[in-house]
Every structure is written in C-alpha cells, then in structure tokens.
Amino acid sequence: MKKILIFTAAIAPFLLSGGCSNGEGGSLFLDRIASFNAQEGGEIVAEETEERSYQEILLDKIPPGISPDEEFPVSEQFQNGCFAFGVKHIVTYKYGEDLDLNDIEKIIEKPRSDLWTAEHIRNFLAETSLGLAWYEESETFFEFLRKGEPVLIQYWYPLRDGRQIGHFVAAYSYDDEGIWISESIAGKNTRLPFSDIFSSDGQILEFPFAVVAERGNGE
C-alpha cells in the first residue's frame, strides 16, 4: 500500500490551484507525486508491491463493504463546491455529522466564485478537524471499498460544450460495471464506468484518491 500524502500540512507544493465548479468552471488537479508523509518530515514511505489492474482485482469476486443500493449521503452542491461536498458526504456517512458548508465557507473566507486552492483546503481541514491520506493504486482503492470505507476521488466531468473538468466526489461502492459515487452536481447517487476512473493499464487511478478521517482517531 503506497501512501501519497498524509493530511495536508505539506500539500501546497503538490497542488495546482483550482477547484471544481457546478459544471461551469475549473478544477483542482493533484499531480501524481513521490510518496510523501507530511507527519514524518517528508520521509519516503512507499513499499514496493506487485500492482494488479482493476480487471484482475474484480476477478476475486469480493463484494464491497457498502452495497450499491445503500442510501449513501448525497446532496446538490453550490458553485465551486465539489471538494467540500465530497468530504461532507463521507463525513456524514462515517460520523453522522452534517457539515454546514455555508458557514465553513464564510469562516475560511473562501468566496464562492473562487476555485479551490491549497490554502482553502488547508483552512477547510483545520476548521473541520479532518485529515486526508492520499493514495493512487487500484489495489488499495478496492481494499478500502471492501472494508466499507468511502473515499474521495476525482474524475473528468464532461461539460455540454465538450470540455472536461476535474470533479471531486465520494466513491462508496462498486459492482461488475463500475464504481458507485455520490454525485454532487446532479445531486444523486450514480455509477461511473471503470474507464472514467482508472488509468489505461488499470493499476492506478487517473487522479490520487483520499481517505477522510477525523484527526487523532487513529485512522
């Protein structure tokens, strides 16, 4: 299991500014970066493991920890809100807490018209006492979903004019045809085809994904 980033104390050097919109704006992109542990002073923590493609992993026939039919939290986002709403849906499921994103947005002084920046994310996580641990391998992704651990993913969302934007959502389950997500632009749970999420060789995701946890709870 390779850990890309733990929490966000040192996330700024690896972020390109941006943030997902309501379908009409830019995106927040996370480059694939060297494995880095912000809590251990930047030490490399990657372990060399044999990586399998998602196609090979699905042959295991191990069911997800959360059924695709479960009523996973979902709500319709406001403008440039996908990162916050993706986290909100995971927090609601895991901890039963409903984050007031309108209040949080004011507290961290993020104008709704602005795209998300590294500073916005740091302030958001500080205000909510949350942390993010970033990964990219398909094997690790399915390990979390098999345990019933929803994760924050990013994928290319198609716009009506043919362009695509990077869009954050909570991924919570899977079946033989794709990954189930809490889609905040449409405000409903839906399934994405595997090809929208994974790289061409199927061994990693197109964008790193994150586990969301309350700080200090050992996750």
Provide the succession of SSEs: EEEHHHHEHEEEEE
Which secondary-structure class do the elements indicate?
alpha+beta
Number of strands: 9
Beta-strand percent range: 25-35%
The biggest sheet amounts to: 4 strands, antiparallel
**Basic shape:** globular
Q: Helicity, in percent?
A: 10-25%
Number of helices, counting only DSSP H or I runs of 4 residues or more: 5
Determine Rg (CA atoms, Å): 16 Å
On the 0 to 100 scale, the average pLDDT is: 82
**First-to-last CA distance:** 15 Å
Strand arrangement, largest sheet?
A: 5-6-7-8
**Low-pLDDT stretches:** 3-19, 21-48
Note down, in words, how this protein is organized:
The protein is 21% helix and 26% strand. The protein has 219 residues and is α+β, with helices and mostly antiparallel strands. Strands 5-6-7-8 form a four-stranded antiparallel β-sheet. It has a three-stranded antiparallel β-sheet with strand order 1-4-9. The chain has a two-stranded antiparallel ribbon with strand order 2-3. Strand 5 and strand 6 (164-174) form a beta hairpin. The chain is globular and about 45 Å long. 38% of the residues are buried. Mean pLDDT is 82; it is low at 3-19 and 21-48.
